[in-house]
Every structure is written in C-alpha cells, then in structure tokens.
C-alpha cells in the first residue's frame, strides 16, 4: 500500500536502527576504555597510598613525599588495638577517624569524603576518597559517551530531512499539477498512484472541479439561452420604434406606441424572469435562510395578484391556511409562490377559479395552487420545467421561465414539486412540499 505514514516510518526506523547500532558500538569501545582507565586509576591509587608501609625506612625527603602525596586521591590510615596511628599515606592529611565500620561521609577541609572502615586482627583500617575526584571522573566518562551520540545527530538530521521530503513529495506534485492548469482545465486529477493519506484530499478537489464544471456549463447555457430569448423581443421593440418614427397620423402613432409599450413590458418581464432564474440556480450563492411564516406570505402573494385576477375575471382565493414556518428566505418563497399564482391566472380563462392552500402534514408544509384552466397534457408534464419551454399551440404570452424558476427554488431548499390534474381531472394542481423549521409543531389539515 502506498502510504506516507508507512514510508516515513520505514525510513526513520531504519535510520534509528543504524544510528543505534553505530552509537552502541562506539559507546561500547568508549565504555571499555573508561572501565580500563577506572581500574588503572584504582591500581595507581592503591600503589601510591601504600608507598610507605610500616617498618620500611623511607629514603625520600619530606618535601618529595608531600609532592608525591598530592598525586594520590586515596587516603589510607591504620590504627592498632590501642588506637595509635601506625600508618598514614598522607601524614599531613589525617582524616577524622570514623566511629563505625562500613561506608560513611565526612566533611573535611571544605570537601566531602567517602570513607570505608573495617577491622582485621586488631587493626582498624580506614580508606577515604574525596567526592570531587569521583565527580571529575564521572564528568569525564559522561563526556566521552556523549561524543558518539552528538556525532550521530547530523546523520540523523540528514536522514530525517530526506525521508520527510521524499514522503511529502506527492503534495508538491499535486500543487504543481494544479498550478500548471489553465482556468478552463477542469478534468479530475489522477488518484491511482497517490498515497492513502493524500487521496481523500485529491478526491475532494476532484469533486469540487466536477461541481465547478457543472456550474460553468450551466452559466454558459444560461447566457446562450438568455441571448437567444432576448434577441426576439429586442428586435420587435426596434421594429415598433421604427413604426412610431414613420407614423404620420396620430391614430397610427398611438397604435404604434401601444405596441411599443407592450413590447417593452414583455422585455422587462423576460429580463426579470431571467434574473430570478439566475438567482434560483442551484449553483448560485444562496441567501441566508430565515424563518418565514408561510401562511402570512400566502396571504400577501394572493393580495398582490388580486387585481390581475379581477382584470382577467378569475376568482382567486385562499381555501385553507395552517400556521407554518420554514427556514427559507421570504424573497425566494415569494418568487416561487408568485410564479405559480401568476401562471395559474394567465392560463385560467375568465369565469374560472384558483384556490390556494397551505397545510402542515407531518414535518412538512404542503402548498397547493389549483386552477380550473385547460391543464397540461400528460405527455408535456415532464418538459414544462425546462427553461424557455412553451407548450405547443399556446396563445398565452410568457417567457417559459416561470416553472423553471419554481423548480430551482424548491430543489435548492430540498423540497419537492409535483404537477397533476386538478380535482375531477380538470385544470392543473401544483403541489410543493417543504420541510418545516426545526421546533415547529405541525397539525394535520
């Protein structure tokens, strides 16, 4: 398995094993030298401390004897049964006599001494050594052992630096591959030979590239469709403006101005629908969600469209409202419901009716807009949500964007919209299901 963790672990463990073997070998030889030096030192000190045994005449002058005594760290003293000193390796450095056998510590002339006292055939023997000599010897031994370890640190540093660099090389390769890409290159990165630690990150980058490709394609398609749809009304406005300019009589000019005004209104409506569609795209930046009372918004939308319904002779009203709150910004919900009601008014003939309701069922609010219009044939229900799609043969003015906007808003808020024939098989019923806001209690209606 290709893994940065395993690779680094293998390199570092190998380096540590080699360094440990090397350090152990060097330490062994250094320790052997230290032990030899220690025993040699003891032999030397024993010999120096016994240079003047009892009963042997000394041919060395007192001054030379004192200089010789300075070379030895051991002090040996022997007392007889009567307590008289019969031997002293340092006559001028007589230590206090210990009052018990075994090891002891004594302070003497500003130094600490380690003593050992034993008795043998009526003689009391005491041997002492200053602790400063031991400390000096221990420091020397520690320094000699530390030198091999310090000598191996540069080697370990180089190996760790090289192994970490080698292990993290895939990250640099991924960064270089991304930096070398053009803005239009959105193909996924190759993940076949990547370490397991890097693969989730590259997979997430590939998912982001895929979503970005979909968003850019949606944007390109939207721009192309918008340009195509705007060409016709703008051309019509230009022709109507020319008719106004060529009109001589007032009646002709008024008729041309009326047509021009109607064309401008249609173009404005188309532009508004295009902007609403762009904001409702799933890839667009969603506005901050806010708690919105559905029942209050339904009343407001119905009131806003009441005058249009009266002009067309359509009975628009609310048949049922349950209090409900959803986590959707009020503007998106207003645009969605407004398009459903506007479409129903446009396609419902005079004398017809439109019923709007909002019921809470389980954890959802179910919004219905039902009209008594001609409805939509079954074979066209799957296409009416496409942008700019108009049912063949329809005589109602429109842009073909209303239901596309509704669908985008509903899907962006994880809802569901269904179109079906109205009650009795006549007209059209649009049903939208949206999740209630958290903490909202629902009542079956």
Summarize this entry quickly.
By secondary structure, the protein is α+β, with helices and mostly antiparallel strands.
How would you sum up this structure, described in words?
The structure is a single chain. The chain has a 5-stranded antiparallel beta sheet with strand order 2-1-5-4-3. The protein has a 5-stranded mixed beta sheet with strand order 7-9-10-12-11. The protein has a two-stranded antiparallel ribbon with strand order 6-8. The longest helix has 48 residues, at 199-246. It has 3 domains: 4-160, no CATH class; 199-279, Orthogonal Bundle (Helix Hairpins), CATH 1.10.287.130; 288-435, 2-Layer Sandwich (Heat Shock Protein 90). Mean pLDDT is 75; it is low at 55-61 and 63-69. The radius of gyration is 51 Å and the shape is rod-shaped. The chain has 10 helices and 12 strands. The chain has helices at residues 4-49, 62-69, 131-167, 169-179, 199-246, 250-280, 294-304, 306-311, 330-347, 402-412; strands at 75-79, 85-88, 102-108, 111-120, 123-130, 291-293, 315-321, 325-327, 353-361, 364-371, 416-421, 428-435. It has 445 residues and is α+β, with helices and mostly antiparallel strands.
């Amino acid at each position: 398995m290709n893994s940065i963790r395993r690779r680094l672990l293998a390199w570092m463990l190998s380096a540590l094993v080699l360094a440990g073997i090397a350090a152990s070998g060097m330490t062994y030889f250094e320790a052997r030298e230290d032990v030899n030096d220690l025993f040699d030192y003891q032999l030397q000190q024993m010999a120096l401390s016994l240079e003047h045994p009892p009963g042997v005449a000394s041919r060395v002058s007192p001054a030379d004897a004192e200089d010789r005594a300075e070379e030895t760290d051991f002090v040996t003293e022997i007392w007889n049964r009567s307590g008289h000193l019969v031997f002293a390796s340092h006559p001028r450095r007589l230590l206090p006599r210990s009052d018990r056998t075994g090891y002891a510590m004594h302070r003497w002339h500003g130094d600490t001494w380690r003593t050992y006292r034993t008795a043998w055939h009526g003689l009391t023997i005491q041997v002492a050594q200053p602790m400063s000599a031991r400390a000096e010897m221990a420091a020397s031994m520690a320094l000699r052992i530390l030198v091999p370890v310090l000598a191996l640190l540069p080697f370990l540093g180089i190996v760790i630096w090289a192994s970490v660099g080698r292990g993290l090389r895939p990250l640099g390769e991924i960064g270089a591959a991304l930096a070398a890409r053009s803005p239009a290159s959105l193909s996924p990165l190759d993940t076949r030979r990547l370490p397991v630690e890097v693969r989730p990150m590259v997979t997430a980058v590939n998912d982001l590239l895929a979503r970005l490709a979909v968003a850019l394609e949606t944007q390109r398609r939207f721009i192309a469709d918008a340009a195509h749809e705007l060409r016709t009304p703008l051309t019509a406005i230009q022709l109507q403006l020319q008719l106004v300019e060529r009109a001589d009589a007032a009646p002709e000019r008024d008729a041309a101005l009326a047509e021009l005004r109607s064309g401008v209104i249609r173009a404005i409506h188309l532009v508004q629908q295009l902007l609403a569609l762009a904001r409702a795209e799933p890839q667009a930046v969603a506005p901050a969600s806010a708690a919105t009372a559905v029942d209050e918004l339904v009343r407001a939308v119905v009131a806003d469209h009441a005058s249009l319904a009266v002009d067309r002779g359509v009975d628009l009203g609310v048949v049922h409202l349950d209090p409900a709150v959803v986590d959707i910004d009020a503007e998106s919900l207003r645009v969605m419901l407004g398009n459903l009601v506007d479409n129903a008014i446009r396609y419902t003939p005079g004398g017809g009716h439109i019923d709007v309701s909002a019921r809470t069922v389980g954890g959802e609010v179910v919004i219905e807009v039902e009209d008594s219009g001609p409805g939509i044939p079954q074979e066209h229900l799957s296409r009416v949500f496409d942008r700019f799609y108009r049912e063949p043969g329809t005589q109602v003015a429109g842009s073909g964007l209303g239901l596309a906007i509704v669908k985008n808003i509903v899907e962006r808020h994880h809802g569901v919209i269904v179109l079906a024939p109205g009650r009795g098989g006549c007209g059209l019923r649009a049903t939208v299901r949206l999740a209630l806001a958290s903490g909202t209690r629902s009542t079956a209606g």
